[in-house]
Amino acid sequence: MTMLPSEMQHLARRDALESTGLINPDLSYSMASTIRKLIAVLVILSLCHLIMNPICLAIDIISMNQQVIDGETVVSAGGIFELGFFSPNGSIGRYVGIWYKGLPVEKVAWVANRERPLIGSNGVLMINASNGNLVLVDDKNVSVWSTRLVNLISNNTVAVLTDQGNLILRYQNKLNESVPLWESFNHPSDALLPRMKIGLNTRTGEQILATSWKDDKDPSLGSFRTAVMDPQELLQVLILNGSLKHFRSGQWNRRNFIGVPSMTKDYHNGFQLLTDNNGEELYFSYALHSYSAPTLIYFDSYGAIIQMDWDAKENKWLRVQVVPKGKCDLYNTCGPFGSCNNNDSPICNCLKGYEPKYIDEWNKGNWTSGCVRKAQFQCEEMTTSANSDDERKRGDVFLPVSGMKLPDFSHYLLTWDKMECENSCLKNCSCLAYAYVDGIGCMIWGKELIDLQEFYRGGEQLYIRLAHSQLGRYTNPMFLLLSKNLVAPVSDPPKMRYRWRIWHSTDNIFEESKQHIPFYYYLD
């Protein structure tokens, strides 16, 4: 084959350079081979980016063709949360969970396969190509957990871990809009992160709830769970032990739960009551004033709600709040019409005008039967002839009891002001007590007064109905307020003065007698 003049000149120059030792033919071949390999790697990486090959794990996204195997993690875009496989201390089971990245894992914030742990490290988390669900399978490709969505309009879905710790399954619609289909925030485990929610569908009664672990080694469903009370009885959050009430938050006053005085502190007060567009779903969520400090609220296996905050200076998690804390925080410790005070000994006392139902049991520390009224209300005796006209005209009285966790089973009464609230209760002989609370309004009780607690600080004022005869020979309310179960600390200025109301009934015209009195605190 005849060579072109230019090719002959190129070979002549190459031979001349080789003869001088400036070019090594073997080295030149090696460099060319290396360049070809680099080009091949770049091509593979480019293709990998386009087809999302599993070997190229995205940071915060699980896509259709991408698998997350045991040992790999998904990290939110800002590096705040991490999703991966874990085993609780002392457990051989493997679970998929979400936790704060880069911090000691004191508590996992969310667990997917709580009821079906994986055995071994062959689990795979992926998008199911046939139906678009996020699914966790074992080594036999059997599903142990799934988002379990049906009739998806598209199987082109992705799962994204957000910087709030929310795992979201979503798809892109024709307008290139991201449409969420499922969120872990709507399916809590035993913990609540800021913006996670618990609540109630008022139409179906379905609860969005958190449930405790069985124990520290077992994330499966434990005995304790949250429940949101029907708003017809004023919104409250309960902790249930099975079907029994374990703890009650007290009524919601649009800022906090009035049965948890520590929530009045700005640091802890971030709860909000939210609703969906249809007004059918009511749920509580919380957000702190600053997101710089990681925080977590969770159930322990004994039914306590614990709030943990990360202390960057101490470089450790701190428990900043625990409820229930004392025996009085537990539901209805002292029975009907019994008031509980953690600082008293014994902790239970009957309300003024009431006495133990079973005195022997009460003296032995069994307070569950509670207390009963000593005398009928005056309104109940109006038709009897045993009482004088003068006694009947005196009517019933309302005794103000301060610093209280208001009873369960309250009813909301639409009234214009506190005076109207009081009048309404007075006119209804079945009304046992009332309270008027900022943010709520008028509450009345027509059943037994259940789950009463007296706080050292905080709490609300409860007005208890008494027969006038219960004043005894002392008509000055000073002697009543010195009763042990009505004592409050002098350091609490709002409790230093009270209004005592004695109502007289004459021809259905009610007159109010007001008397300001001093208040004293006696130590045992």
Automatic annotation (TrEMBL):
<dbReference type="InterPro" id="IPR036426">
    <property type="entry name" value="Bulb-type_lectin_dom_sf"/>
</dbReference>
<dbReference type="Pfam" id="PF00954">
    <property type="entry name" value="S_locus_glycop"/>
</dbReference>
<feature type="domain" description="Bulb-type lectin">
    <location>
        <begin position="59"/>
        <end position="182"/>
    </location>
</feature>
<feature type="transmembrane region" description="Helical">
    <location>
        <begin position="38"/>
        <end position="62"/>
    </location>
</feature>
<keyword id="KW-0812">Transmembrane</keyword>
<feature type="domain" description="Apple">
    <location>
        <begin position="379"/>
        <end position="467"/>
    </location>
</feature>
<dbReference type="Pfam" id="PF01453">
    <property type="entry name" value="B_lectin"/>
</dbReference>
<dbReference type="GO" id="GO:0048544">
    <property type="term" value="P:recognition of pollen"/>
</dbReference>
<keyword id="KW-0732">Signal</keyword>
<keyword id="KW-1133">Transmembrane helix</keyword>
<dbReference type="InterPro" id="IPR003609">
    <property type="entry name" value="Pan_app"/>
</dbReference>
<dbReference type="InterPro" id="IPR001480">
    <property type="entry name" value="Bulb-type_lectin_dom"/>
</dbReference>
<dbReference type="InterPro" id="IPR000858">
    <property type="entry name" value="S_locus_glycoprot_dom"/>
</dbReference>
<keyword id="KW-0325">Glycoprotein</keyword>
<protein>
    <submittedName>
        <fullName>Uncharacterized protein</fullName>
    </submittedName>
</protein>
<keyword id="KW-0472">Membrane</keyword>
<dbReference type="Pfam" id="PF08276">
    <property type="entry name" value="PAN_2"/>
</dbReference>
<keyword id="KW-1015">Disulfide bond</keyword>
